[in-house]
Fold these 2 entries.
Entry 1:
Amino acid sequence: MKKLFALLAATLLWATMAKAQTADSVDVLDYDLAIDLSNGRPFTGDATLTLQLLRPCSEIGLDLIGMVDSIWVDGQKLSSPDVLHIATDGIGVGQPFTVRLCYRGYGYVEASGWGGLHFDSRMTYNLGVGFGIDPHVVGRAVFPCRDNFTDKATYTLRLTAKESWSSECSGVLQSRVIGSDGLERSVWRIDQPVCTYLVGISQSAYSRLYDTVAGYPFTAAYTSTQNPAMVEQVFAQLDSVVPMFERCFGPYRWHRIGYIPTERGSMEHVNNIALAYQAMGSMSEAGQSTIAHELGHAWFGNLLTCADEGDMWINEGGASFCSEVAHEANHGRASSNRVYQRDLEKVIRTTHITDGSYLPLHGMPHSRTYGSTTYDKGAMVWHSLRGYVGDSIFYAALHTLFDRCAFSNIDAYALRDSLSLYTGIDLGPFFDFHVFGAGFVDYRAALEREGCAPGTMVVRLRQQGVATDNLARASRIPLTLVGWEGQTCKTIVDLDSSEAVVTLTGLPFDPAFCVLDIDCEISDAATVDIIAAGTTGDYGNDYCHLRLHADNPESAATYYVEHHWGHPDGVDTMAGVSRTLERYWVVNSLQWGNPGMQARFRYVRTGGNYADLDRGHLTLTSTVDSLGLLWRPDHRSPWHLVSRTHTGRNEGFMVYNNLRVGEYAIAVVDSNLLDIEQPQSASPMEARLCPNPTVAGEPVDLLLPDGEYTVTIHDTAGRRLWHRTGCRGTCRIDADLTAGTYLVHIENNFISLQSKLIVL
Ligand SMILES: [Zn+2]
């Protein structure tokens, strides 16, 4: 289900709001519903329910928003028809019996104008779920039923349509005839057990597009206001999406695929998906995503349903995850990764504001059932679970899950246990943090090469909670190592505590640095951008909030940027820093400093497209002039306040010229108490190897910035070839270097930097 933002005013008609209280006293097995919409409102219904008692009881109640005229139990007419009190004396537990009700409905629509049965000038249609009604299911707006997320039954729908109109409904069409009165009568059958909220009925002066998708009959009904060519175009993606979904989740179980348009929004009715007009009217990414989301419910929600509304993330997060899978099917993994990172950025930045606080996925309160946490963070967690166990195991486990649990219900605990069984991996720690807990985890990984033998490397790992004190146990962190030649290899490092030191062995090359989760496999509180910056122009994506501007013929370089929503450690102890943004950047590159590269780090005091970016940490009480840009060369070094300019006043960028690798943070500072590091005095961009590349046997000069340094040269196997302390100014490197690539490391108490020297 997907809501449109512009909700129409409420149309609340007079109605009898009958709501049964005894949830598990009776089970409906089948509904046979004759609904006559030919006269509009009120409409008439004749419903025969086949039920069985689950425990001995003398009466049952049914849910209905409407007026009951008469009731029969096993053919015996009741003298006083009361939908809430239907006598079942003498009927045994498990013994099927029928209840027939003749009733009138009025087209009830919830106060927010969404869920219910809509009688519009162009069409009649229902939306089976309401945002502002308890329970959220509103099958009872159309027919008498047990209206909940667990009672699943089969259905026969017999629709009589308004003159010159035609019906589209859930189920498979059994017959469609025009009577002597000129009215269309159609019969539809749903022979799989489904919940009441998934039964969709509609009528309009429809045109139809018929097709076959992946072997399934396909119908898109549309109205005269729509462009048939566009209708055909928007569904073209299904030719690749349906096979992809079947590969990922198992067979499509619903015999046919159908969509109808609505003005209010989209809803995953079985075989008869209600789709917002906008999604059927353009090739927008949002529209394509919605088409896939609703179809994804054929597995997440319709086939396997959350046990109650508190686990709606299983349905809606799963369906939103399907949108990502569909995007990947249509545009490839690189493109879906960019969409994923954009969405992850938005979730971390805004979901807790939209939903009022950081909420766990499980146990969602009624008022937030259909909130951003359920949909958007839910999708992130399904995505992250995929990354946690790996594609082949993940999708094999989902196949098994949807096969063994088809047409049933599941809660988060049973889902955890089932998937643990099917994957062979204990998912307890994953669920504890991501499903049963609120907030996010931010990981930091950095190499420490001192003392490492060739082919080995030490990685220092740390995690910090974002809006949580919980520890993400049994974390599996994808790490990409980048070598001095730009070569890469990926590894997974395990972290079961707040920090750890891990030794990597058997490395194929000497890594220069490491980058977190380049392939976007986990939903940690960080986004990653690989910026291949050229010699001139602007580069970078907004989801890392760092833009690069190159204006020098020699400035082309590749930057690996991590944007972390974590607290930058070590800043709080700096005198003169009153508070820091709860974000920081890690910038890595094979290029030390870069005189032609300008970096622009986004800050937001108020307004703009990222209004919530620094909410709570940076307010209008801080002037833009009080914002300082902090830099340090690596995670062990102290921070320095560096010289910067800025754009904007309420939101904009801290602008830093001559980009160098290291970590960056923005803080509110008292510049009277802090020295601003002048680029001219200690900037490593002044450090240059001349010439570089060089040729074997020729001397090389290392031009150092002000200060005294220790200089060390390693080969790519990690062997130390040259070492000198107390270097100043111009340092002649007189090592006898043969052709190859070498790592030059300069450091003092303030700077620790590396670059490569190429000998031809
Ligand atoms: Zn949905």
Note: Residues 306-438 form a domain with the Neutral Protease; domain 2 fold (CATH 1.10.390.10).
Entry 2:
Amino acid sequence: MSGPTTDPRHAVERLERAHRVLITSHRNPDGDALGSELALAALVRELGKEAVIVNRDPAPAGLAELPGADTILVRDTLPDDFPAAYDLVTVMECPGLDRAGFDTLAAVPILNIDHHADNGLYGQVNYLDGDSPAVGEMVWKMFAAAHLMPDAATATCCFAALSTDTGDFRYANATQRAFLAAAEMVAAGARPEQVSMWVHERRTEASVRLLAEVLATLEIGCGGRLAVIQADVGAFARAGAGAEDTEDIVNVPRTITGVEAVAFFKEPEPGTVRVSLRSRGSIDVRSVAAAFGGGGHVNAAGCSVEGSLETARERILPALRQQMECDS
Ligand SMILES: [Mn+2]
């Protein structure tokens, strides 16, 4: 273990000492997870090493079109030649090692690359930058640190990571640093219009039907500041939808004037309820999620609760209302 570093050279130096690198990220990978994994694999190969990407869950439909995404192994367990055939594991965008969904990753030294403020420093090298808009941007900086020029496909992967994690450059993390990196990526051949198509125009019919079901459950509380939506097992069944069809729905109530926080309760199958929380400004939904074993960012977090949807609501909503200082 060593202290965290924001210097991409330290991460590149660790890669240079490796021969065969296993790359993974969190369960239900998003644009930053997938884009940063693919870009890192390209960097590892440019350095003359071998890279294998393994994820526990498949990519969402649109992001499966990222260049190289078809090379990602999706498995419930690590490859049969792990740990013997690997001398480094690189974990992308995981505040805790458990997020990857594999039990034995720590059998090999770990390079931990993340931008979450609550990262658990589980790596031999911890390349962490809480000011970075996306882990894909941190990988982009590693190319410069290695004096290597990313190709157009890699630039597109990094751009996908950056644009999805900044909400198409609309969130507070769409900083000057984010735009400067985006300009470099486009100059290197990244295709923003292609990424936008993959991210926004690959909806399933089931997800649009589920959206209708969910919006019909909208409740507004806390004097107009809190929006609550849900998808119970019946809603998933009527829409023909699964957990993968809930993406982005939580953001719809956030567009209501005056709404400062959104809670979305999802019950794709009975017994476990996934909760997505979104907020504005200083309302800290990460601490609410963390109280129930989850995590994330101050303004975007989530957790899972065992039991019924009603139980999950009874546990989470009082904690959220307290965080928001609701008096009604
Ligand atoms: Mn990220």
Note: The mean pLDDT is 96.
